[in-house]
Specification:
Layout lengths: L2 H20 L3 E4 L2 E4 L3 E5 L5 E6 L4 E6 L2 E6 L3 E6 L4 E6 L4 E6 L5
Antiparallel strand pairs: 1-2, 3-4, 4-5, 5-6, 6-7, 7-8, 8-9
Length: 106
């Protein structure tokens, strides 16, 4: 066989193999978009709302009822809930945690 054709055939086989392995990781579902550990968006199962995760466990954004949270564990997270007038910050959890509740002004 010709050397150039062998290289081309090998590249073609590797392309088909890589495509076959990566294609199942990218899915368009009715519930959201999923690309495996790179990006995933899905509805919550126990509460109403949805959650987005990216780069494995290193970024998330979640909206549940009136609560909104986002974070980059374990570096930082932020949670707000207008219904309870509360807000929470975590920096290098559990080293620094701050929770703020709206004060009653009378």
């Amino acid at each position: 066989m010709v050397k150039g054709f062998e290289n081309f055939a090998w590249l073609l086989r590797m392309g088909w193999l890589a495509g076959g392995l990566c294609l199942p990781m990218v899915a368009f579902a009715q519930d959201g978009f999923s690309a495996g550990l790179l990006y995933d968006q899905f509805p919550l199962t126990l509460d109403s709302g949805h959650r987005t995760e990216a780069v494995g466990p290193f970024f998330y954004h979640q909206e549940r009822d009136t609560e909104k949270s986002w974070g980059m564990p374990p570096l930082f997270s932020h949670v707000t809930d207008p219904a309870t007038e509360s807000e929470a910050y975590d920096l290098l959890y559990p080293l620094l945690t701050c929770e703020i509740y709206q004060r009653d002004s009378h």
